[in-house]
Write a structure and sequence with these properties.
Elements (H helix, E strand, L loop, with lengths): L1 E5 L6 H12 L3 E3 L1 H13 L7 H8 L15 H10 L3 H6 L1 H8 L5 E5 L2 H5 L5 E6 L2 H14 L6 H17 L12 E4 L5 H15 L1
The protein binds cytidine-5'-monophosphate.
Length: 206
């Protein structure tokens, strides 16, 4: 059983994917962390995100990145991740890890931007999780200020819109709802309700 969860930044897809993995007893992969790791590796060696070759070279550095590193979750690295992830060669270099994870016995839950469209087109269930940019900016703002980060709502909203545009507008694996994915708009839902709804949508596909 493979569950694909896609959607834009701060839509709630990560929380929903984790809850589904927990509910079905499946391993979970946050594929955004792969691109964030490439971005952080590139940042550390002082590489240029405008250069595809340098971005590709940074893929080799991801084993050295500590998954618990707080910098991975920063907006700077998220923004850089959305730049390096637009390169087809970078996406290609990360493909096998994702396929290997998805092919585990028993199945897996993967979340990202292109799981239902490119990585696991044959997934048992596909969710496209979304929310309005304003709600997503509010959530990100709350999360950041909660962690003691000095963040401004207006800046976050601008960043979220720019990231949406870049992720949806690129040629390589753009952010788009798969034809056979169920749409889950979390704008007016609490986390609990969104998770309940996600489980119900998955159940209907099994
Ligand atoms: O989901 P998260 O915000 O951590 O992802 C960071 C960036 O990585 C996204 O903005 C997107 O550009 C890229 N990404 C991607 N494909 C995925 C997951 C993330 O292109 N499957």
């Amino acid at each position: 059983m493979i569950i694909a969860v896609d959607g834009p930044a701060a839509s709630g897809k990560g929380t929903i994917a984790k809850a589904l993995a927990n509910h079905y007893g499946l391993p979970h992969m946050d594929t955004g962390m792969l691109y964030r790791s490439v971005a952080l590796a590139l940042w550390r060696f002082g590489g240029n995100a405008g250069n595809e070759f340098e971005a590709l070279r940074a893929v080799e550095g991801i084993e050295q990145i500590d998954p618990g590193d707080e910098e991975l979750r920063s907006e700077t690295i998220g923004k850089l991740a959305s730049k390096v992830s637009a390169y087809p060669s970078v996406r290609e270099a990360l493909l096998e890890r994702q396929h290997g994870f998805a092919r585990q016995e028993g199945g897996a839950v993967l979340d990202g931007r292109d799981i239902g469209t490119v990585i696991c087109p044959d997934a048992s269930a596909k969710l496209f999780v979304t929310a309005t940019p304003e709600i997503r900016a509010q959530r990100r703002h709350k999360e950041l200020t909660g962690r003691g980060v000095d963040a401004h709502y207006d800046d976050i909203l601008i960043d979220i819109r720019a990231r949406d545009e870049r992720d949806a507008g690129r040629d390589a694996a753009p952010l788009v709802q798969a034809k056979d994915a169920d749409l889950l708009d979390t704008s007016d839902l609490t986390i609990e309700r969104a998770v309940q709804r996600a489980i119900a949508l998955v159940e209907a596909r099994l």
